[in-house]
Design goal:
Elements: E1 2-7, H1 12-24, E2 28-31, H2 42-54, E3 60-65, H3 69-75, E4 83-85, H4 89-97, E5 103-107, H5 113-124, H6 134-146
Parallel strand pairs: 1-2, 1-3, 3-5, 4-5
Helix pairs in contact: 1-5, 2-3, 4-5
Length: 149
């Protein structure tokens, strides 16, 4: 898969761990995140990272900041993005299986690197299946279009 990856300065170290892990697994990573020692505005990073997912350049996106919350809030402003904060196996799993998330957000101040990599592998290995959640995901997309006016 081609993955769009972004971080702010609070999550630079975690981003680098994630990047190396994804590349070792054979994924192509487009790094949109802060560099070492660089201070950035996380909304700008989230928008740039998610634009690549929304326009089809990348298959999925990963965003990391201090908590994952600000990145997720920004990401969900981008048309076509369904971002979820994932800090445990259940939220990571359900973000794909119930909500067809295409962007995973994590907090470097919340999850240890080992847990982040575990959650990432879980999330990357899942695919949304058409079923009982389909009408809910379709309704999310309906409201996205409805309020974009």
């Amino acid at each position: 898969m081609r993955i769009s990856l972004g971080c702010d300065e609070a999550a630079y170290e975690l981003k680098m761990i994630i990047r190396k892990h994804l590349e070792a697994a054979g994924h192509e990573v487009i790094d949109n995140g802060a560099g070492a020692g660089e201070v950035v505005l996380y909304p700008d990073i989230a928008a740039k990272t998610c634009e690549r997912v929304a326009n089809g350049e990348c298959d999925r996106g990963i965003l990391v900041c201090g908590t994952g919350i600000g990145m997720a809030m920004t990401a969900n402003k981008i048309s076509g993005i369904r971002a979820a904060v994932c800090h445990d196996p259940f939220s990571a799993e359900r973000s794909i299986l119930s909500n067809n998330a295409n962007v995973m957000c994590m907090g470097a101040r919340i999850v240890a690197p080992q847990l982040a990599v575990y959650l990432l592998d879980l999330w990357m290995g899942l695919t949304f299946q058409d079923g009982p959640s389909t009408p809910k995901v379709e309704r999310i997309m309906y409201y996205e279009k409805e309020f974009a006016k």
